[in-house]
Amino acid sequence: MTTFAIVDLETTGNSSSKKDRIIEIGVVVMKENKISNEFSSLVYPDREIPPFITSLTGISEEDVSHAPLFSEIAQEVYDLFNDAYIVAHNIEFDLGFLNAELNKCGYPSLYNPIIDTVELARILMPSSPSFKLGQLSEQLNFGHDRPHRALSDAQVTSDLLIHLLKLLRNLPERTLKHLLKITSKLKSRLDLLLDEAINKARYHAAQEEKFHIWYGVAVKKVNLLSSDEHAISSAYETWINEAYTGEQGLKQFINGFESRKGQKEMSDIVYQSLSKNQHALIEAGAGTGKSIAYLLSTLYYSIINKQRVIISTHTTALQNQLLYEEVPKLANLFDKPVQAVLYKGRSHYISLVHFSYELENSQYDNYDEALAKAMILVWLTQTTTGDIDEIQLPSNGQQFWHKVSAEQSGKSVNLKSEQSYFYWAEQKALHADIIITNHSILCLDLISAESHLPPFEKVIIDEGHQLESVASRYFGMRLNYKELQKQLSYISENFSERYVKFLSYDMNPLLDRNKAAVEEAKEELSQLSKFIFNRMRRSRQSSTSKSDVGRMQYSLQELKDQSFLSTAAEMTNRFLSKVQRIQRGLESMVDQLLPLTTSSNDEKVKIVLSRLDHFIQVCEKMVTQLSTYFTDLQQDEAKWIEMDGDGLNHSIYMFSEPVNLNQLLQKRLFTQKQSVILTSATLTTNQSFSFMRKTLGFNKTDNLIQVNIPSPYSFDENVNLMVPNDFPNVRDDPEEFIYSVSEAIYSMAYITKGRMLVLFTSYDMLKKTYFLLKEMINPEEYMVFGQGVSSGSRDRLKKNFQAFDQSILLGTSSFWEGVDIPGDDLSCLVIVRLPFQPPGQPVQTLRDKHVKDKGKNPFMEYSLPEAIIRFRQGFGRLIRSSTDRGVVFVCDQRIVESKYGKYFMSSIPNIPLTHDSTTKLLKRMEEWL
After folding, report:
1. What global pTM score does this model have?
2. Residue 212, SS3 per DSSP
3. Which of the two residues, 802 and 100, has the higher pLDDT score?
4. 216 assigned ligand-binding residue
């Protein structure tokens, strides 16, 4: 009978080595899924309990003042673990503290078999959005009344363990056997549990019918493609009216649906554009319901004409919203299932043939590789897409993923594509009514000779204001030192003997030569990076600027130092000569292995060949991108280098972007496709589309529809705009300006109870404000989160901000758009500076020269309209629903006092403006809110 002792501890801190102590212990003993014993005790720690721990756990100094010392309960605790698995959620923490306390009392450390429920949850619930105990218990509907109390946490952990063991026993025999081979590298002792599960699985053959066995791996059965034909008998006008107003329309499938002002108008414009092969620019203000508007007419058009339409978005969140929320609702309006697919690049999909190959080499795994394999094995019994975005691999899991993604399967080697998730994604896309993708894949498709999307003639580009910035990256170049070194390391892995050990002859001399070539290339790259870093840091380039994440930028076109350029070009050529040597080594391996594909049916040869083929292409791309980087400095392409200020590993970033992207988009997109529809809440400046037309490359002769659909929200009633007239001039005294911003934020926080988003244009200014606020604010009053300062992604920071009642979020760059914080979570938006590009940006500098050469004003032509679009995006963070209400506080007086301020004001809804002293503004804010 298997016994589990589930333990949880509350402690004064994170480290027993730093004299942190246990303040509470809870143990649940379980046999055959039934609790046989429970133990709980507060513990006197013989040291102070920090306020944060008291706040987290609710355990105070008074609570433990009469509690026993650990030594007084040590024997009772020790006996609980006799002949049992020790189980904990993050076991290294709990077992580390437990053994430290036992050792202090003269007891030996516990060396029982262990199970870490964090690790086990990652393996058996790989698609879970979080592996924290509280979030898992909420997800699984476990009662968890007293989180961060030892016995309650131990009880929930025992519920979780029961759930996980049930999942384990329901896995197919093939998966269990693969897990058994890799379990020795994991923390948890799973071999006996797996043996037991394997024995039971042998007697449940019916369960195996749910799975295919592809390349020796159990995968969930994939449904064949539907061949149902759609039938729509109604004309468009009749059908769309029924959808919006009829009893059998949207109101039947969307709770509380009311057709919004402008929504049907947008549907009609989209349908007209698709039907008459016209391009369109449609600005749809917040609350229009634009995604439903364009999806309705697009689905009707696609189905009635049997012609697929591409929908491209900038953010993953919008893609998921369209596919999983909007399309299923609208599909009810059609007689047959709607075929809508999310289409991604090869690198997102697992290659089963490569994964199977890696499973055979599991004896070489480190911990992260073993955990990644275990997670993927279980995930393959659940997924129908094979898209890695469904799971969260461990921190170094990406190093394993590159070996098993479909990107490794080059087209030169046939690897049974019918048993491939990427093949299925392609097939689904070919039969789809609409294909949802992102701007990156769309742009990649436009620039590449090889297709990255199924053939299409019509495309809707949502978040269309972002198309230019994404296209600039794809029509240009982005390389950095770390990424190049990583690619060289990936190449070097192919020269390991483990990957060719199946050969009957010795390839080691060639492998050794190829390894040496990689090491030489790495050294040349390191020398090049150090040279550039040190020379740039010493340079006195007048046009040095900073990127939006605070890296120093150096424009190659602005450099006067010809000796630097010639030396950098020479060192780059030395590096590339080593890369070409690596390429020849890869080609030599191909030459030796290729004859074996005709004489042998062994898939291993084909797998190795496909990897070699992939990395030959990687080498070719490096040579193509870098060979003329320092020599061909044309004025139609900006080239620049960026460096982190701290100079970690002398890491450099190399960029290039076209200056006149409009000509490229006109040639590759607007003249090639029948209908391109761009929509966004921000496509106009000063009520005109002229800037967007010019930037994106629309000709005056283009058959172009332009429509502005205003927001139905009552901005005049729900928003107040406030601008202080007593802030110091940022140019004269930047430090005093930052201090004034911080003081204003601090004062406003009391009025708004936190719930503030502060938008910066400068990462340096954000950091300085963050640390000033941390000095001013009592951490028990307000939580302050800063992008790039606080740990976590943009989404994580947003969730943390929303999780606390009183919090302030400071953001730059990506926070100006795409961040939705609806309702009471946000009541004040602070815009620190009008979002003009910082001076000296490389692309902007060259573009300004071009505009001046034509006798025009670059500020009015580009800088001002760009800033207005960005300002409107930032402004849009505040009001995300008809009931939202709040204040926009703009610290930059130029919006009121400069000649161009009126262009900003005319580009946002007509709302009350107060321009007064900070003191009076705060008083008005308090009254209004």
Report:
1. 0.88
2. strand
3. 100
4. no
